[in-house]
Design goal:
The protein has 336 residues and is of the alpha/beta class. 42% of the residues lie in helices and 21% in strands.
Length: 336
């Protein structure tokens, strides 16, 4: 395969990361479409997508619809949704996916395909925390999926308007670890679009390493309303987050994804970002559904399956889940 094989590109999840990737790929010559709704759909139809990066503003046309059938079969579908939205939406994506379509995930947390490349009892297992009834796996067959891990910061300034803050990184990889032509071609396309794209031999490792920091600071910030610098400055809170990370580190070792760092190493990296509001804190403040299952619930489930005790993760998940349910941001009937 070649980068030119990805001519028709659809973005599912027309938010910050989806908009950033969409504009960059349109600038690289791709025919861009987007699945959107509400004010975002209206803005994309009227003005196209706009991306602010530094002092530069890029504006590109996009074929936008709230029905996948209007967009048709794509060469590349980029799923940049918040994780809670995907189980309900996935069945509606069928018109986008043809025989050779590649589906690239650009989402936070543990994805539904995570166990595809694992061995032993977890090999190809379904994680009920992120795909409770198997709807995602059924709608998006594993053979179409290439995993992605985004290392960039973007925000939505207005419907159809995205601000890129920093970072150009995107790691891609086959869930089963093979060094495929399509993963290489996809990375080459992303590089042509101005991204710093690399191919990983074990994309689960990259997912897990990014998650390792997010799974503690995100829900703790949502619970407390505090920015990251304040969390790290409180010794009791810092210790609590470290203990959840040590539990996840033990799970990683058991499933073949060891982490060489210690929690304090990651805290030092987080501290350099200053007084920022995590994505989960922003979601709680905006009263949007929280990505609790993908960031914490899936880690607990993996721990249960490989018999690693997770008392600190259990406490964090229980408290964050109750807060989210009280605010109407997490379903009352979700599995415990």
């Amino acid at each position: 395969m070649n980068p030119s094989d990805f001519q028709r590109v659809a973005i599912v999840g027309a938010g910050a990361i989806g908009g950033w990737l969409g504009v960059r790929l349109a600038q690289a010559g791709c025919e861009l479409s987007a699945l959107a709704r509400g004010e975002t759909l209206a803005a994309l139809r009227r003005d196209g997508w706009r991306l602010h990066s530094g002092e530069q503003v890029a504006q590109v046309p996009v074929a936008a619809s709230d029905r996948a059938v209007d967009l048709g079969v794509q060469d590349l579908v980029i799923v940049a949704l918040k994780a809670p939205a995907l189980p309900a939406l996935a069945p509606a994506l069928a018109p986008l996916i043809g025989r050779h379509t590649v589906v690239l995930t650009a989402m936070n947390g543990v994805p539904w395909w995570f166990c595809e490349g694992l061995t032993g009892e977890l090999a190809q297992a379904r994680l009920s925390s992120v795909d409770p009834h198997g709807a995602i796996a059924q709608a998006i067959p594993a053979r179409h999926v290439v995993g992605g891990v985004v290392h960039a910061s973007c925000s939505v300034q207005a419907p159809g308007v995205v601000r890129h803050h920093f970072g150009q990184g995107l790691i891609v990889g086959e869930p089963r670890g093979q060094n495929s032509e399509r993963a290489q071609a996809l990375a080459a396309l992303l590089c042509l679009a101005g991204l710093e794209a690399t191919v990983s031999p074990q994309i689960q490792r990259d997912v897990w390493f990014k998650l390792w920091g997010n799974m503690s600071v995100n829900p703790v910030s949502a619970l407390t309303g505090a920015t990251a610098d304040r969390l790290l400055a409180d010794p009791l809170v810092r210790d609590f987050m470290s203990r959840t990370m040590l539990e996840a580190k033990a799970i990683g070792e058991r499933i073949g994804i060891p982490i060489e760092q210690q929690p304090e190493d990651r805290h030092a990296v987080t501290a350099k970002l200053g007084a920022f509001r995590t994505s989960m804190l922003q979601d709680v403040q905006a009263r949007r559904p929280v990505e609790l299952d993908a960031l914490v619930g899936a880690v607990r489930e993996l721990g249960q399956r490989v018999q690693v005790p997770t008392p600190y993760l259990d406490a964090l998940f229980g408290l964050a889940r109750l807060q989210a349910r009280t605010l109407g941001l997490y379903p009352d009937d979700a599995p415990a």
